[in-house]
Amino acid sequence: MDQPRPVVLHLISSLNIGGAERLLVWSMQAAKDDDDVSYVHVIMNDGDDAGLFADLQATGYPIYRLDRREGHLHLKYLRALLAIIDQHGVRVVHTHNEGSRFWGMLARLLRPGLKLVYTVHSEGNAITLTGWKRMAYRRLVDATVAISRFVEAETRPMDVRNLTLIENGVDLDRFRTAPRAAVPTGPLRLVSVGRFAPAKGQDILVQAFAEALDRGLDATLRLAGVAADTDFHAHLMAMVADRGL
């Protein structure tokens, strides 16, 4: 008799534009023909990017919105999450940010048979866990995924269980078919996309770009993103002005 497919629930706080959100959608697009595992998705907070949601919906996997206000703590969200877990016979909950990890840990406490996975999507994330939070993490998170070698090295001193490096993937076919000039002409064009915040390191990029121009590089640089950290964004603008860029 065939065993039922294991069910993995992906739990994320939002589906707005961001690296973790994009990676989740791409992963599910790649897994849509997977016959070995079934997937369910729960988005904790209200609001999402319509394009990302449509892409996730197109995979055919169930999606639930809990419409939680950001920062709102109420048992009704935990009850709703547990009901979805029970309805689908979920065996693994895979969380993708600190907020969803919190709710996943609560579910793990109340459903001891669950396995809990957390993906560390950015540097500086693991080292913020200290004291009782680190103890709870070690107790309740069964496996940790690091998205880069740097993140893996930063996370390892926490002595977490089952730390695994799985670097972010990109569908290269999307770029192989893109039109491009046979012989590139003009200056080298550099583009950086990401929220303006210290963790993204745009200040390092601007400094490196200025030094490259001083050495004779013919290039342009464009940075696009939201000013998540307004002080840091102002610092970047001052760097650009000071260096005459």
Write a short abstract of this structure.
By secondary structure, this protein is α/β, with parallel strands linked by helices. Helix content is 38%, strand content 20%. The model has no long low-confidence stretch (mean pLDDT 90).
Describe the structure.
The protein has helices at residues 19-30, 50-57, 75-88, 98-110, 131-140, 149-155, 173-176, 202-214, 230-242, and strands at 7-12, 38-45, 63-68, 92-95, 115-120, 143-146, 163-165, 188-193, 219-224. By secondary structure, it is α/β, with parallel strands linked by helices. The protein has a seven-stranded parallel sheet, sandwiched between helices. A two-stranded parallel ribbon has the order 8-9. The relative contact order is 0.10.
Strand order of the largest sheet: 3-2-1-4-5-6-7
Question: What count of helical segments does DSSP give?
Answer: 9
Structural class: alpha/beta
**Main sheet, how many strands, which sense, barrel?**
7 strands, parallel
Silhouette: globular
Q: For the record, give the distance between the C-alpha atoms at the N and C termini, rounded to a whole number.
A: 68 Å
**Beta strand count:** 9
Runs with pLDDT <50, length 5+? none
Computed over alpha carbons, the radius of gyration is: 21 Å
Mean pLDDT: 90
